[in-house]
Write a structure and sequence with these properties.
Elements: H1 6-22, E1 27-33, H2 39-47, H3 49-54, E2 56-59, E3 65-68, E4 74-78, H4 88-106, E5 115-121, H5 129-141, E6 149-154, H6 159-170, E7 178-181, E8 187-189, E9 192-195, H7 200-210, H8 216-222, H9 227-248, E10 253-254, H10 262-276, H11 282-293, H12 301-312, E11 322-323, H13 325-348, H14 359-377
Parallel strand pairs: 1-4, 1-5, 5-6, 6-7
Antiparallel strand pairs: 2-3, 3-4, 8-9, 10-11
Helix pairs in contact: 1-10, 1-11, 9-10, 9-13, 10-13, 11-14, 12-13, 13-14
Length: 378
């Protein structure tokens, strides 16, 4: 069997990561609301300020502009804030229905509107009857399309006021999925945090519940508001690939052929990277591989990794020098869990991808991986 070098495997993994991201279906979200509804703050908080900074907007109708970022599978359809006293709300309603209809007629998932966020500023103390009427008419017309509508109560630093506003809206029995009070950023007064941000995690979870299966990976890739949702999704990826590794080891794999697990583990790393939505380099992937399996560029990755497993987890009732389903699964789970922990650190800024390429960073990866391996032994 040809040897798989760290450099070669890292190159393959990086190509797989790019492929996974490029294959993500596009999510299209329409964001609507009156003037001062806090849409920009909400968008920045959910998708990150870098998305907003890099966005390019183009008019798609008189009222709507489509905002996209190069190579991002996300599009925001936004309207300037409007006032209920003029004709613009009616124009917005007609154009929004038109966008929804056009997307459905295209029969292309990447062109469809997948969700509508209607933003109401809780700090305004009330919701106008005209606004409730607009929502009622729009959501009724939307029944034939069934595009999920989420009402987001922005700037909800006063939780009691937000709860009352939510109650009033829910009593209208509108055709919506959820009313979610949100304080997108900590509310600071005279240099003191008087209300901590909340509600974004609920919004992320509700979006995960209303979006179709074909958009779940995309949603986790683009959302920056809930790290735990990303971790939970990544755990599912690990479980799937661990099962594939176990199937590969159902008949004991000769020790010398342990590299048969590498494609499975490369796919897992690529899928997890896509979920976290962070940029990585070949150097970073090489650092992770060499730190986890202690391999040089001339070492067979699978063989080195299995040696590490034999040292750290119990292997019983298998032929000497062979890898069985339990070992294959344990190795894959440990590798996946270690990679998730590293991704968390990169995502939060605790350590950068470049820092993990230093001797200290590689040692940190090694410690994390060995700790994960020992979990199966303990």
């Amino acid at each position: 069997m040809n040897e798989l070098s760290v450099e070669q495997t890292a190159r393959t993994a990086l190509e797989e990561i790019r492929k996974r991201v490029q294959e993500l279906n596009k999510i299209n979200i329409a964001v609507v609301g009156k003037t001062g509804a806090g849409k920009s703050t909400l968008i920045n908080s959910v998708f990150g300020e870098e998305f907003a900074k890099a966005c390019v907007g183009e008019p798609v109708t008189k009222e709507f502009r489509k905002y996209t970022k190069p190579e991002s599978p996300l599009a925001i359809y936004d309207t300037p804030g409007f006032d209920m006293s003029d004709n613009r709300p009616e124009d917005v309603r007609k154009e929004l229905i038109g966008l929804i209809s056009k997307g459905i007629e295209s029969r292309d998932m990447n062109q469809a509107i997948h969700c509508i966020w209607y933003c109401i500023n809780t700090a305004a103390n009330r919701v106008e009857e005209g606004e409730l009427k607009w929502l009622s008419e729009f959501t009724e017309e939307n029944r034939k399309f069934n595009v999920p509508v989420i009402i987001i109560l922005t700037q909800s630093q006063d939780e009691e006021k937000a709860a009352e506003l939510k109650r009033i809206i829910e009593l209208k029995n509108l055709n919506i999925k959820k009313v979610i009070p949100v304080l997108a950023q900590d509310y600071v007064l005279r240099g003191q945090v008087v209300a901590e941000a909340y509600g974004l995690s609920e919004l992320v979870a509700v979006m995960g519940a209303v979006l179709p299966d074909d958009l779940q990976k995309t949603w986790q890739h683009v959302q920056k508001a809930d790290l735990q949702e990303k971790v939970k999704f990544a755990q599912g990826i690990i479980a799937t690939n661990a099962a594939a590794a176990a199937a590969a080891g159902a008949a004991p794999i000769p020790f010398s052929d342990a590299a048969v697990l590498v494609p499975i583990q490369t796919t897992m790393i690529a899928e997890i990277t896509a979920v976290f939505g962070v940029g990585v380099s070949k150097g970073f992937i090489s650092a992770f591989i060499s730190a986890t399996v202690g391999a040089s560029t001339a070492t067979v990755l699978g063989r080195a990794a299995v040696k590490a497993v034999f040292k750290l987890i119990p292997v019983v009732n298998i032929a000497a020098g062979a890898v069985n389903a339990a070992v294959a699964s344990s190795l894959t789970v440990a590798l996946g869990n270690a990679y998730v922990l590293v991704m968390k650190m990169v995502f939060t800024g605790e350590m950068s991808a470049d820092q993990f390429q230093t001797p200290e960073g590689r040692e940190r990866i090694k410690e994390i991986f060995h700790k994960e391996l020992k979990k199966d032994k303990d």
